[in-house]
Amino acid sequence: MKRIYSVLVENRAGVLSRVAGLFWRRCFNIDSLAVGETEDRTVSNMVIVSSGEERTLEQIEKQLNKKIDIIKVRTFSESEGICRELLLVKIRYNRENRKDIMENCEIMGARIVDLGKQAMTIQICDTPERIEMFLDTLKTVSIVEIARTGTLAMLKIREQRR
Fold it and tell me: Which of 23, 60, 61, 147 has the most C-beta neighbours closer than 10 Å?
């Protein structure tokens, strides 16, 4: 089971280390971790994706809420949120496979952001599942380098009922 933790923290040195240390000490798994400032420069948002048994995931939330630097913890499942990930992938290509790669990019909504004589860099921003699907389409070519952001997530907007 996976759970997403959207954690508002004070934007100070050492906060990331203390949160990561909590996971390390308790042997909790971090599938993905992304951190960035919010509209308030003194507050950052950590999006942590973790997997494990229900009891473990509940324990993670309790432990996060005990930390002094943490302002607010929201937890939700992938279905309750909007999840996106950014992927940059550098690949080698040749005359024979270039057209196929470009067609795959168009179908998947990816963009070629840098192009050389024998290599290209492709960018795609999508759900983690579609990122994996896109990477599967590239298994026949030579991947030189991959950079991924990890999952960013927000709760979906819920309309108020009258």
Answer: 60
